[in-house]
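Box 3.1 — From sequence to structure: Biogenesis protein MshI
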Amino acid sequence: MKQKLRKASQFYSVGIAYTADQVLLCVLRNINGEVTWCLDTSFSHQSWQSDLKDYVHNNGLVGTDCYFTLSSHWYRIYQIDKPMVEDSDVFSALQWPLKEASGSEKDIVYDFVDLPAQVSGQNKILAVAVAREEIEKLTEVIFEADLNLKGVSIEEIATNQLVKCNSEPVITLVQEHGEVIVLNIVKDNQLYFTRRLKGFENIGGFTQAELEMGITDSLSVQIQRSMDFFESQLRQAPIRRILVKLDSPHTEFLCQHIADSMGVSCEMFIPELHCSPELNFKIASFSCLGAAYSKVLFESEAKNASKSIKSKKETKNKKGVENEVAN
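Predicted structure (token representation):
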């Protein structure tokens, strides 16, 4: 009833990212198909329950579709064997192996994604599990703030939403403030490979001179290992492009070093959406932006599915008419 009485929001979507040290929020507008990042703020873990509601009401965000994501600090990803059951039964069959992998007796909320390419002889999936009570606490805050929660995701998936669909594979390096670097390999909007690069959590505190004293070389080595696995073990085409969004004021320098040492194109990761003049992608949370932007992809998928159904119906009707004429 509460939802039905609300006026339609003037905003397109809200993205919220729950990171290691704060809660981040961004807002998108969609005017005539032009999606623009227009608002951005952050809250402390201690006060976000009340601050979020105040911000939503003060900025006219009541009833806006909201997409929530957890940063990599809050969960683990498991690469496990896909249960040998019917596809429709895979989800339910994952509960026990995931509880065993997590080592927790608590009730869990979980999900999984299929991997488009496999190491020969394997059939793995990527799965994530989070304590149900934790998710319920977070979602309750969003509901009480009068936002329309549409989905909960994780950093690896949320940042993937910002990569332009391309048949050529691309590596993304994305880092939230003070956290590990998340390396994804994406092709055709599908996540083929992901890993976390530890040891670079404090990269934002180093000067350019300090970065040249082995840190950039270490980062390049980790990237090369991932590329080698993708190309040799997954038998995929070589990667020729890397997109970088790191928690460092010297990201452009890092891009140039990676490009020079690895012989591939390496550039700043700039999402294909508009940005208000007072905002800057260099300081954005891509977990947050990716969460908000996921609405664009969901709507696109729904539209394509609708077209496919319509096309099948038209084909079926056409065949029916042809059969009637033939008879």
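Summary of the box: The mean pLDDT is 90.
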